[in-house]
Structure formats: structure tokens, C-alpha cells
Fold:
Amino acid sequence: MAVHHFMDTLPSPPRLWAVTIASLTFFQLAAGTEAILIRHDRDDAQYRAEPAHFPFLAEVAAAQGTLIAPDWIITSAHVAEGVSPVSGTVRIAGRELRVRRIVFHPTWIGDLPPGLAEPEWVDLAMIQLAAPLTDVNPAQLYTGDDEDGQEVMLVGRGQTGDGRTGPRLNDRKLRVATNIVSRTDHRLLYFAFDAPPDGTRLEGIGGPGDSGGPALMSKGDVVFVLGVCYRNDGQGNDDVAFRYGTSDVYVRLSTHLGWICRILSNAMGDTIWHSVADAGWPNGELGEAAEQYFSAFASGSRDRMIAYEMKWRAKESLRGLSAEIRAEKWLTQFRRWRTLVPVYWHQPTPSMLVILARSGGQWRSVRLEMQGPVPRRVREIVIARERETDIPG
Structure:
């Protein structure tokens, strides 16, 4: 099932995906299209690859992930945010597969610090399938600590370009580039995009929307995944991003094996949903922000909605879209739906709350995320229509 989303227009931090929102209407959530940027002096055909050679690649919210166990995919946390914990699906080997559970790295927040500093959080998530895949060989986790200097494969599908032009074409064809791990730190791997004559014979990097995809290394018949695509260090400057001289940044998996293996080894049940009527809201700012959002929405009052936006939005967000405009858009939805009554909630991360709400004769999921140090502020609110059959009993 395709999940249709209603999303506010709060600007998000720069990542390897983007969603453009003209208004607060229903749209298909897209995390961008996969991309591989190639050398300008090589024929594009040299980079083309057969999907059957990479059966463990997963399409996750229009971005990517990697099957690392029969029922587990690893991807970026910001990609996994686009998958509904209620009715989400992924695609592997041409098949649409139901999602059972999404587990975010416990440090995941999603805020980017000012300047060029790398954040302290880890942009990783694990997605459990509803049923294991028995006919697809997963990629293996790399357990060594010698990634620096290794040659890897970077795999992507769709938008492409070269180191001079940047991304320019979206044809959805699978491409594979090679690169060398140019630098490592405890948490990250870096791949410099070198202009010829430097670099590998099929030098390349990922591009917009390639988040969550793998850095792969082959040893004999075994394919290892070393990292998960996180961002390009030229983002924020359209004249520089994804071109020669920039670096792709991947989350280093060898230093996060403890967390990954705990997830793989634990017998995990379905997502735990709490009843609002029985358990109330979670303690702290996240629960308070959610409770006050539903109260303001139910009031149908423009003034109440403006007051909510003024209290809970960061000032820089309100400069991008004023509280008055936001309130008008919420009010438009109130007139259409009339009700939005919270019934269950699930807290996948310290900064994220997913609420199942009744809206007339329909169910909707509401994802509320907060950002920043205390006092935290609302980063985004996403509402998705859900099927009755997907709602927990």
C-alpha cells in the first residue's frame, strides 16, 4: 500500500534527500531518487550494472537500504523516518515486503550542529521485515578495522551526472562506481571524489537521494557492507555539491557492530503501542508537545493554533513560514477532517512520537519530531492515512 502523507513545511536540515512541499496537501513521500556521479571522461555504459548482481539492495522510502540478515535491513535513520511503522513496505528483488518493526539508533536526533561540525548522533536505523527472505543472500557486515585505503563499490539507481556537471539525469538505471576510503574516524568513512587522472578507473560517489545505500567490498564470493550513505560534504552549495573535490560521508558500521548485533540477536516483537486513555502521554516535552497539538487542533481555533506554533516552533522555522500561515493550513485540515482524536502512541526515539488517531471513519498516523537542546522545539509533523487492518488490536 502506498502511504499518503500530509506534512508541514518546516525546512529540514540538509541531507541526501529532499521533499518539496507547495502546500499542506496529501502527497507521496519521496526521499529522492538514487544517484551515482561518475567521471566525465568515462562512458556511462561502463558504470551500468544488473540488479540481479545486487539482490540484497532494498528500496526504502524511495532511497536505499541493505539486507544484512534474512529479515533485517540496515539504512539511514533519516530514510527510515519515511517508512510508516504501521503500514510501511520496502522493495527487495522486485518484491514489495511488509515492515514489522523499525529500530532507530538510540542517539538519533537529526539536528545538524552549526558550521561544519559533525553531529554527535548516529544516522542509522534497522528495519525488520514481517517475514524473512529465504531466497536472497544478505550482504555481510564487515568486522575489520582496516577500512582506510580499501577500494569499495558504491551502488545507486536513477539520477546521475559527472564530477563537472553534478546530478542532471534521472533514468532509474542501476550504476556502480568505485572509490577509495580516503579517511576514517571512529564513526564515519569518507570517500573523496577525485578528478582524473587521479582516482579509480570507475571513480564515483553517491548523489542526492542515495542515503541509506551501502559501501560494499567484495572478498572472493562474499560481499561485505562497510558503511551506510549519510551525506555529501558539499551540500548547501549547489555549485560545489556532488562534484569533484567533495567527499561522500558514510556511517562506519564496524564501530557500531555492538548495537547492530544486539538488534539482530534479540527476539523482538511487534511495535509496542500505548493507549492514550490508559497510559496517558509520555513524560517530558515530547508528550507535552503532542498533547497540546491535538488539543489545539480539536479546538478549531485559529488563535489556539497560532499560540501552539509560537510556543513550540523554533524562531528560525517561523521565519521560513509564519505561525499565522501554519495555523491557516492546519485550520484547512480541521475543516476537512473535523476530528483528529489520539488513541495510541509509540516512541521510537527520544525525539520522535508516532500517534495513531481517529479522524472521522479513518485512522491516521501522526509523526511528531522535536529538535534542539532544552527547551526543544517541534521540527516537523507528518500525518499519514492508514488502513483499518493495520491498526493494532
